[in-house]
Amino acid sequence: MHAYRTHTCAALTSDNVGDTVRLSGWVHRIRDHGGILFIDLRDHYGMTQVLCDPDSAAFADVEKLRSEWCIRIDGEVKARAPELVNPKLPTGEIEVFVRSVEVLGASKELPLQVFGDQEYPEETRLKYRYLDLRREAMQANMTLRSDVVRSIRQRMWDQKFREYQTPIITASSPEGARDFLVPSRLHPGKFYALPQAPQQFKQLLMVSGFDKYFQIAPCFRDEDPRADRSPTDFYQLDMEMSFVEQQDVFDTIQPVMQGVFEEFGGGRKVDSEWPLISYKDAALWYGTDKPDLRNPIKMQDVSEHFKGSGFAIFAKLLEQEGTQIRAIPAPTGGSRKFCDRMNAFAQKEGLPGMGYIFWRDQGNGMEAAGPLAKNIGAERTEAIRQQLGLGVGDAAFFLGGKPEAFERVAGKARVVIGEELGLTETDRFAFAWIVDFPMYEKDDEGRIDFSHNPFSMPQGGMEALSGDPLEVLGYQYDLACNGYELISGAIRNHKPEIMFKAFELAGYGEDEVRKRFGGMVNAFQYGAPPHGGCAAGIDRVVMLLADEANIREVILFPMNQRAEDLMMDAPSEPSNEQLRELRLRVLPPES
C-alpha cells in the first residue's frame, strides 16, 4: 500500500464498498454524534466522510484530532444508509470506518477558520495566505486560473503561435508606469529594471523573423493599487505577429478570448459580435474608454437645446469654448425620488449636482417635470425627449462644462443608473474594441507627451506627425469587457525615421531615443517587418470569470493595498553588507 494514500478524498464511490483504503488530508470538520466521531477529511480534490466509534482501536487517537490537522487514515469503505446519502458530494454514497490514524502535521490554534464562510480582514487573510488558500472558494479560484492559462496556451498553439521566454532583468523603458529598479553589483551606480512588459523584446523577435510569438509573461510595475490592479506584478498573455494590420490582430485574438469565456463562463452569455468604437465616441457615449456594454444607456450631446435657453447656468457655460451639455437617458427612472437620489450621487462625487427632466402621465397626456423643463420650456424639452428616444416613466440627467471636468462622474452615473434601474444584464460578457486612440496628450504643465503606447504607428505615418500632435491618432486599441480593460495593443512603429519624429514631438531627441531604445532602433535599420500585437491581463480575465470584484481573490500570493507582503515580510531592509557590496546608501525618509 502507498505510504500516504490509495485514493484521493474525491475518488471513492459505491464501487469501493468493502475495500480497505488509505486516505490523507486535512481535518475539515469534526462532529460527535452520540459518541461516534465523524470527520470530514479534505484534500485538494474533495471531501470524504470518515468515522470512528468507541469500539475502534483508533478511537483514542481520533479523539485528539483538531481542525486543520494533516492526517493519514486507514479504513474500510462502507455504504451509507439510503436516507444518509449526500448527493452534493461525489463521495456522498459512502463513508470510511477508521481502523488506524497517523498525524502527519498537527496545527496550532487557527488565526482564521478554513471551514465555513466567515469573513476575515484582508490583512489577516494575506498574512496567513496558506490557510486562506485552503478555503473552498480560493481553491476553486486558483484551479480556475490554472485551467484558464492552460486553455489560453492551447488556443494559441492551435493558431500556430509558439511560446518564447523573454528576459526578466532588462533596461528601463517608459511603459506608462514606474519601473522596479535592480542595482547592479558588477556595474556600481547602474541599474537594471524588471520589465513592465516584454514590449521591446517581442518586437525584436519579429525583426528576428519568428512571425508569431506568445508568452504567459510576468510584468512588473510600481503602481498604486486598486481593486482591479496589482501594485507590483501581474501576468499577461503577450502576443505579437508580423505582416499584419489591426483587423488581423482582432481576428486572431477574438477566438482565443471568446473561447476561454465560453469554456469557463459558467453558462453566462458570451457576445460574439465585438463592435469597434472610437475612443472619442466611447468618451461621449459612456464617459470611459472601457465601457460596460451590458448597460444599454448611451449618453448624448444635447448642447444645441440649451444654447440661449432660459436655464442660465447651462446657457452661459455654452458661451465658453470647449464646453458642452450631455444627457444621460434613464429609461424607467421617471420619479422625483430617483432623480433626487441621482442628484445627491453627483454631489457626493464633487459636482454641484445633475439637472434632470422626467416624463409622467397626467391622464390627458404626457407632462415633462423637473426644474430644467420649467426653465427651458416645452418645445426644447420635447426636442430633448425625441432625441433621446424617451417616453412616459422615463428620465434624463444632464451635466455640463468641459468634458474632462465631468466625464468621469457622468460615466459613473451611467453605471449606477443602469444598475439601480435593472437595465444592466448581469449574466453576460459584453466586449468592444476601443480604437483610434490619440497618440499624444498635454500634461498638467501643458507639455506634449504620449497618451498611450509610445511604440505605436501613427495613423497616416510621417505625414500625420507634421500637423497638430493632439490631432494624431495611433493604431492603438483596447478590448473592454463589462467595464474593465482586458487587452491593450497596437500596430507598431517599425520605421526609425517615423519613430524619431514621434518621440521628438514628445520631447525626446534622437540621441535620447538611441540611448534608451538603442537595441530596438538599431534592429529596425536591418529590414524590420510591419508587425503588431496585444496583451491580455490574465489576472483580470480570471477575476471576471470567477465573478470577483477584487483582483487579489484570484492571485495566489498578492501584496496588500500598501504593496506589502505580510506573509514574507516584504519589502525588507537590506543588510549593511548587501549595501556595501552594491555601493549603495539608503537615505532616511523625509519627515
Automatic annotation (TrEMBL):
Keywords: Aminoacyl-tRNA synthetase, ATP-binding, Cytoplasm, Ligase, Nucleotide-binding, Protein biosynthesis. The lineage of its organism: Bacteria, Pseudomonadati, Pseudomonadota, Alphaproteobacteria, Rhodobacterales. Homodimer. HAMAP family: Asp_tRNA_synth_type1. Aspartyl-tRNA synthetase with relaxed tRNA specificity since it is able to aspartylate not only its cognate tRNA(Asp) but also tRNA(Asn). Reaction proceeds in two steps: L-aspartate is first activated by ATP to form Asp-AMP and then transferred to the acceptor end of tRNA(Asp/Asn). The gene is aspS. InterPro entries: Aa-tRNA-synt_II, aa-tRNA-synth_II, aa-tRNA-synth_II/BPL/LPL, Asp-tRNA-ligase_1, Asp-tRNA-ligase_1_N, Asp/Asn-tRNA-synth_IIb, GAD-like_sf, GAD_dom. It catalyses: tRNA(Asx) + L-aspartate + ATP = L-aspartyl-tRNA(Asx) + AMP + diphosphate. It is an enzyme of class 6 (ligase). The record marks H33 as: Important for tRNA non-discrimination. Its EC number is 6.1.1.23. This is Aspartate--tRNA(Asp/Asn) ligase. It comes from Limimaricola litoreus. SUPFAM superfamilies: Class II aaRS and biotin synthetases, GAD domain-like, Nucleic acid-binding proteins.
